[in-house]
From TrEMBL:
Chief place of localization: membrane
PANTHER family the UniProt entry points to: ABC TRANSPORTER PERMEASE YTRF (PTHR30572:SF4), MEMBRANE COMPONENT OF TRANSPORTER-RELATED (PTHR30572)
Name of this protein: ABC3 transporter permease C-terminal domain-containing protein
Cross-referenced Pfam families: FtsX
Family: Belongs to the ABC-4 integral membrane protein family.
Subcellular location: Cell membrane
Length: 816
């Protein structure tokens, strides 16, 4: 292997490796987001409630409506003693879902069904098989439950009718813990359906939504495919082309710019080494374009193997990381592991990025070579503007200036490497800052959330407390409201501080004069620590003085005026106000309560009184023909760590056998949460480590190429100096002195750039306390990374220098 090619091979391999990994994670995930948005909701617009066919025909006449598919209500069915969800569509809607079909065809007749890949494997079903499907209702404790509700082993199935169906196709399974779905064709016997609307121009989705609202009325909620709109950067103001281009092109552009900048110097130096060969071609009439083609052909021959190996290694690494990190996260959440499939579109995109890097990097040495005279090129006497030697009366000054000029590209790359490494660490510190800012340990390790029929208090909580005897517990239920800030009298202490303008639109809305209030219902045990009257509503009259402080370190001041005795709240912005009377005010927190959001007015009452207040809130929803939202009761409990997993599983078993109808519950424990957080952190550390290692390796490759080229071009001067009696130690001392100066310059420059870049970013983050942030920066890690980059550059420089200064003087002059 030609030693002059080593730097190119290493650089191309690293570029291919990193671009493959980052390209798959950062770029192709956008394609996954699009596919996910289409799988979850193939249509652009649908309705919350069914409408008559007559109304559907009116919608179909709208100018921006392309087509409308029909969907019926979901039904419960039974196949081979297994419960499924039956969804019935027409042919138009099936055509919108063409991406989910794996084998066969969509149902064309009402007696045909489409089953999932998972169902096919588990029940050994194949296309063309005929099976008896039982339609009916799922019953839990005698109550009909929703077809989409998770399976409960205590439920019963009440059959109403049976039909034979033929399996026409198999669709790709989307892993989840939910029941599998079976698709069939609607029989057109009904008069009402859910219209699934596909638009001609997605950019006009909100205009079409307004037209549909005029047809169906305000009481039928219109559902827009919000995730799809986010993919294409469409909002109520229309198509944001600049944001779309940034989202689509930014990552590939950054990869091309960074890697071109990191390896162009290596390609440039490689071209200088080939100057004599290409000057020979010019001497026999070759054009610059022919030399460019020859140069690119040779670079491609050198690069093709590391290019392929880098991509293979990159994709294998991302697969290994996916299987060991991301799939474990998925398994913890839904109990199944995602399949990992290489996306051909991502591989094409990765190769496009790599070829763009190669083409741009190859163009640079061609431009240098084209400007060198043929005779100078044959003599390897480089006189281009970039490499032409400068003269000085002091021979040592001349040598220093010309050496630094040749080393400048490597020093620039070193500065870029230091800036990237330092910036990554600083940005990671911001992420760590955000996690710690909102961290608040309530010292509980199991949380049970449960929504009951009509939001009545769950007596099962008392039985669970009695059976498991937690060290402490906290039962609560809450509802959030809007508050008109113009109607509130704030305390003098808060008026002196005021709302932080940086949080406008996050915790309050200045333009609409809105902030939030939260009503919390507590169990008697905790509420009676505040008051003895169940009908009391207690105001926790506190707010953070400095909104930038961490919650756990913050100082709290009086929020509202002491004379305030009621709060006017609204369930939604356009709802009527509801008065909540305040009977007591306190200026301390409730023991074990959850964290208070910034500028949130917190009202606490008993669960009994909470339910009474909710009755009025429910009436407001009914007046607007809207369904009252589900409210969850929460019980937080603390147990010994060794019992947490066992108790959590037992509580799940109890709840599974307790719930009625369409009630839902969830049980979380801190062990599972900690595992998820650990896996998330490992994913972040993997990407950060990958980028840092890449920067270090590319810096080493650049230093190797630039340093060797510098000494290659300075051999004659070095030989002359040594032949005239200069000691090699003095010459080496001068070289090392200059190198140390350059290292110090690169470190200072990179620190200044990092301060400017990160400082500019911090200025856009209104919540960030600069002093606290500075305390959290891992300076030892930054210094360590800086030392690795600079010491490796120094070592390469030192041995390249010793290789020349230690050579016989005659050999230096003869071989030049």
């Amino acid at each position: 292997m030609n030693k002059k090619n080593i730097s190119i091979i290493i650089s191309v391999f690293i570029a291919a490796l990193v671009v493959s990994i980052l390209g798959y994670i950062l770029v192709t995930q956008r394609l996954e987001h699009y596919n996910e948005s289409r799988l979850d909701m193939p249509e652009d617009i649908t309705l919350y409630s069914k409408v008559d066919k007559k109304i559907i025909k009116e919608i179909e006449k709208l100018p921006n409506v392309k087509e409308i598919g029909l969907k019926s209500d979901e039904k419960s069915i039974k196949l081979d003693d297994n419960i499924f969800i039956l969804e019935e569509y027409d042919e138009v809607y099936f055509s919108m879902q063409k991406n989910i079909l794996k084998e066969g065809k969509f149902p064309r007749e009402t007696n045909e069904i489409l089953i999932s890949e998972k169902t096919s494997k588990e029940l050994n079903l194949n296309i063309g098989d005929t099976r008896l499907l039982e339609k009916g209702n799922r019953l839990l404790k005698g109550k009909v439950i929703s077809p989409t509700r998770g399976y409960n082993k205590n439920e019963m199935f009440e059959k109403s009718v049976s039909h034979e169906y033929k399996i026409s196709g198999i669709y790709r399974t989307k892993n989840s813990n939910n029941l599998q779905r079976i698709y069939s064709k609607i029989d057109n016997s009904n008069n009402q359906y859910y219209p699934c609307i596909k638009l001609e121009k997605l950019t006009k989705v909100y205009e079409t939504k307004s037209d549909i609202k005029d047809i169906v009325g305000k009481n039928n909620y219109i559902i827009v495919n919000e995730s799809l709109l986010r993919v294409f950067s469409i909002d109520e103001n229309g198509f944001n082309i600049s944001r779309f281009l940034i989202n689509m092109i930014l990552v590939p552009a950054i990869l091309i710019i960074i890697f071109t900048m990191m390896i162009k110097n290596i390609f440039n130096i490689w071209g200088i080494y080939k100057i004599r060969e290409f000057s020979m071609y010019k001497s026999i009439g070759a054009t610059n374009f022919q030399i460019y083609k020859l140069l690119f052909k040779e670079i491609f021959k050198i690069s093709v193997i590391p290019l392929i190996l880098g991509q293979i290694c990159g994709l294998l690494i991302i697969k290994a990381v996916f299987m060991n990190l991301f799939s474990l996260q998925q398994k913890l959440v839904v109990g199944e592991i995602f399949e990992f499939n290489f996306n051909w579109s991502s591989i094409i995109l990765i190769n496009c990025i790599l070829f763009a890097i190669l083409i741009i990097s190859t163009t640079l040495p061609t431009r240098v070579i084209s400007k060198i005279e043929i005779l100078d090129g044959l003599k390897e006497n480089i006189k281009s503007k970039k490499f032409k030697n400068k003269k000085s009366e002091n021979v040592f000054k001349e040598l220093e200036i010309n050496n630094r000029k040749l080393l400048r590209p490597a020093l620039v790359v070193t500065i870029v490497g230091l800036v990237l490494t330092g910036s990554i660490i600083c940005i990671n510190t911001i992420d760590k800052y955000n996690r710690e800012r909102y961290s608040y340990d309530r010292d509980f390790n199991i949380k049970l959330r449960y929504n009951t029929e009509n939001n009545i208090y769950p007596e099962i909580f008392s039985k669970i407390k009695e059976e498991f005897q937690p060290e402490k517990s906290f039962i609560s239920i809450s509802k959030r409201y809007f508050v008109d800030t113009s109607t509130i009298e704030y305390s003098n202490e808060f008026n002196d501080v005021g709302f932080n303008p940086g949080f406008d639109g996050i915790f309050y809305d200045k333009e609409k004069n809105l902030s939030h209030a939260t009503l919390i219902g507590l169990d008697d045990e905790n509420f009676f620590k505040l008051t003895n009257n169940k009908n009391d509503v207690v105001l926790i009259n506190l707010v953070q003085k400095d909104s930038k402080k961490f919650y756990k370190d913050a100082e709290f001041i009086r929020y509202l005026d002491e004379e305030i005795n009621k709060i006017d709240v609204k369930l939604l912005e356009d709802f009527n106000t509801q008065k909540i009377k305040i009977t007591k005010k306190i200026e301390h927190f409730i023991e074990n309560q959850e964290q208070i959001d910034l500028y949130d007015i917190v009202l606490v009452t008993s669960i009994d009184n909470f339910q009474e207040i909710m009755k009025e809130s429910r009436r407001e929803f009914e007046r607007n023909d809207m369904e009252f939202p589900i409210l969850y009761y929460n019980i937080d409990m603390k147990f010994k760590e060794e019992n947490v997993r066992e108790y959590a599983d037992r509580i799940r078993y109890i709840m599974e056998n307790h719930i009625d109808g369409n009630e839902k519950y969830s049980v979380r424990d801190n062990i599972l949460d900690n595992k998820m957080e650990e896996l998330n952190n490992q994913s972040i550390y993997f990407l950060e480590t990958l980028i840092v290692v890449t920067v270090i390796l590319l810096n080493i490759a650049n230093s190797y190429s630039s340093t060797n080229l510098m000494f290659f071009n300075r051999r004659r001067e070095i030989g002359i100096l040594l032949s005239n009696g200069m000691y090699d130690k003095d010459l080496e001392r001068m070289f090392i002195k200059n190198m140390i100066k350059d290292i110090i310059t690169s470190i200072i420059s990179s620190i200044v750039i990092i301060i400017v870049c990160i400082g500019s970013l911090i200025m856009t983050l209104p919540y960030l306390d600069i002093v606290k942030y500075m305390e959290m920066i891992p300076y030892a890690l930054i210094i360590g990374m800086f030392l690795i980059i600079t010491i490796s550059s120094y070592i390469i420089y030192y041995f390249a220098m010793k290789k020349v200064t230690g050579e016989d003087i005659i050999n230096i002059l003869v071989n030049y």
